[in-house]
DNA sequence: CGGCAGAATTGACATGGATCAAAGGCCGAT
DNA sequence: ATCGGCCTTTGATCCATGTCAATTCTGCCG
């Protein structure tokens, strides 16, 4: 059957993106960078690249400070599985840089990736005792971890936080429904077109270049996100190439040559 | 292609469930039953069957009263489309009885049903200006409508309300991910088993009988929910019948003869 | 009680995408 | 610069599910 993953859970070794180095050897979380300890960096949030995209945005300085007191910044190497479905949800995690995939597994190894997360995205559900998905770093990744209980307590006191999480959850829900439409009713060609456009738009919203679309994940990940196989992903990409709709620049960058037509395809004509 | 719906948007006339009668002729919303006007029914919420399952649960009497002032109870006939994707989201709707399907359409009529809603479920996203899906009554349905803006304003003042919505959104999100796994990676047999068990569990949570599973929706709706065709739904049901895992009692009730085995199937062995 | 219309089922056949298998190409390591 | 392993691409074939086309069933109405 399709969509199986080699080892039912563990890391897929190395990965692409950044030099990665010895990632497979080091533990999922590296030593927290000094945070409140280092007097020069009393405000790690001040220098956070992801802040304007995060739940932290729009909070007062005082509120940010209270959040910062809970924060444990960390780095996760590409390929590391750092959340496992069913595991007790001790931490909530805010992604500051890099790319993460979240996924669910069937006992026989079939895998569905339910999302790719980027800077500013939030992992974990405040009111759930257990994680409902697993998460693996696609590239090296920087995160802020919050103890869930402390975060929940803080939510009582910072009303903006709860509202922000609700807004975020609403958007994710809308996107999940879009993905259900894709998975249930779109053809391979439509799926790939939707995927490329989605990544492009996402990059734009983050203020990154949106035309040579960056694909930090491998074909297998794309397949498991779209409900296809790597072979079909590959064939469909070459088909789009042949039709002059895209051009590959290396295997991890796609130039969109006819965005209008791609949109038409992704919408099912 | 599969999953097309006859008319790209409108009601599919009649429907099953209740006598339905002249539903196709009447407008989507019947006249609001008197609410604050009728001195005998000053508290419509008091008599609401869905309350303990709704966002309204756990609010104080005073808070319920403030909500009640916003409420416009209404009845919707089976087959009526009462929310259309993209339409300005004027109302939020709480479902008090009956069954509703929410769905998204592709321009050529392919349809993905993203959920079946029952009593206590909530339609509409507080912070979105437009609906992101369409909704159609599967059976006759009773609802409470809230003007979105007023509801949002009230949310500022009733902290429990926001938290309840966040909890609810989190659960829906988890369920959406489960459905993505189903749509992307499960076989027809696994999909049908999951679907039957899901309905059964849902009924149980609502305090309704969970064994002869009630199927208020038609085969086409089941197909559009599972990313299949009516023919495959039908064939798969007969296959499960042949294997002594279920027995049909009429076309709208399914007896689960071997729940353990069905669970094994739904989990992909 | 018999007749109808829509829904469900069943059958025959077609096909998109999966599976199995083999190159080919990219990238970090040497 | 060269090498080796993994990822990607391509090819050949298969199969689960879709499509097309009749029946058959079910519940409603006269």
What tags apply to this protein structure?
alpha+beta; homodimer; globular; DNA-binding; four-stranded antiparallel sheet; 11 strands; 269 residues; 19% strand; Arc Repressor Mutant, subunit A; Jelly Rolls; 7 helices
Description:
The structure is a homodimer of 269-residue chains. In chain A, the strands form 3 sheets. A 4-stranded antiparallel beta sheet of chain A has the order 1-8-3-6. The first copy, chain A, folds into 2 domains: 39-176, Jelly Rolls (Sandwich); 186-266, Orthogonal Bundle (Arc Repressor Mutant, subunit A), CATH 1.10.10.10. Chain A has 7 helices and 11 strands. In chain A, β10 and β11 (253-256) form a beta hairpin. Residues 7-27 and 30-42 of chain A have low confidence and may be disordered. Chain A has 269 residues and is of the alpha+beta class. Chains A and B meet through β5 and α3 of A and β5 and α3 of B. Chain A binds a DNA duplex (30 and 30 nucleotides) through residues 1-2, 13-14, 16, 19, 187-188, 218-220, 228-235, 237-238, 250-251.
């Amino acid at each position: 059957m399709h969509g199986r993953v080699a080892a039912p859970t563990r890391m897929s070794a190395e990965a692409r993106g950044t030099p990665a180095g010895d990632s497979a050897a080091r533990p999922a979380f590296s030593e927290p960078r000094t945070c409140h300890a280092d007097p020069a960096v009393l405000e790690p949030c001040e220098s956070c690249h992801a802040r304007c995209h995060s739940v932290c945005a729009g909070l007062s300085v005082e509120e940010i400070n209270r959040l910062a007191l809970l924060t444990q910044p960390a780095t996760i190497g590409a390929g590391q599985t750092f959340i496992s479905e069913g595991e007790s949800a001790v931490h909530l995690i805010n992604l500051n840089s890099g790319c993460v995939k979240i996924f669910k597994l069937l006992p026989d190894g079939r895998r569905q990736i339910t999302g790719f997360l980027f800077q500013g995205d939030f992992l974990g559900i405040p009111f759930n005792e257990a994680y409902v998905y697993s998460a693996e770093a696609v590239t090296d990744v920087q995160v802020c971890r919050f103890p869930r209980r402390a975060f929940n307590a803080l939510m009582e006191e910072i009303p903006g936080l709860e509202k922000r999480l609700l807004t975020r959850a609403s958007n994710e829900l809308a996107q999940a429904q879009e993905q259900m439409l894709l998975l249930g009713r779109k053809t391979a060609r439509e799926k790939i077109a939707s995927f490329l456009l989605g990544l492009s738009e996402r990059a734009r919203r983050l203020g990154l270049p949106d035309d040579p679309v960056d694909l930090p994940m491998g074909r297998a990940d794309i397949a498991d996100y779209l409900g296809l196989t790597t072979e079909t992903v590959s064939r469909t990409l070459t088909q789009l190439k042949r039709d002059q709709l895209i051009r590959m620049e290396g295997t991890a960058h796609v130039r969109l040559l006819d965005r209008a037509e791609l949109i038409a395809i992704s919408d099912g004509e």
